[in-house]
Design goal:
The structure is a single chain. The chain is an all-alpha fold. Helix content is 90%, strand content 0%. The chain contains two helices and no strands. Helix 1 crosses helix 2. It is elongated. It starts with a helix and ends with a helix.
Length: 67
């Protein structure tokens, strides 16, 4: 249950930051709201790809002989 609370808190933090930064730059609540919605969606899609890339990079590095 604590992990769910932490993840929810992280999502809300990301959304708040995205909204605030976009609102400050544009002055538009609608644009800030759109950024707040799109930012977590992009994270859900891109972070697993990022993690997979780093996992493969670590695997390749482990196969190389030490210098």
């Amino acid at each position: 249950m604590l992990m769910l609370a932490q993840k929810t808190s992280q999502v809300l933090l990301h959304m708040s930051v995205a909204f605030t930064v976009t609102y400050v730059f544009t002055g538009s609540v609608a644009t800030g709201g759109l950024a707040a919605i799109l930012e977590p969606i992009c994270n859900v899609v891109l972070l697993p790809l990022h993690d997979r890339l780093w996992s493969k990079t670590r695997e390749r590095a482990a196969l190389r002989p030490a210098v």
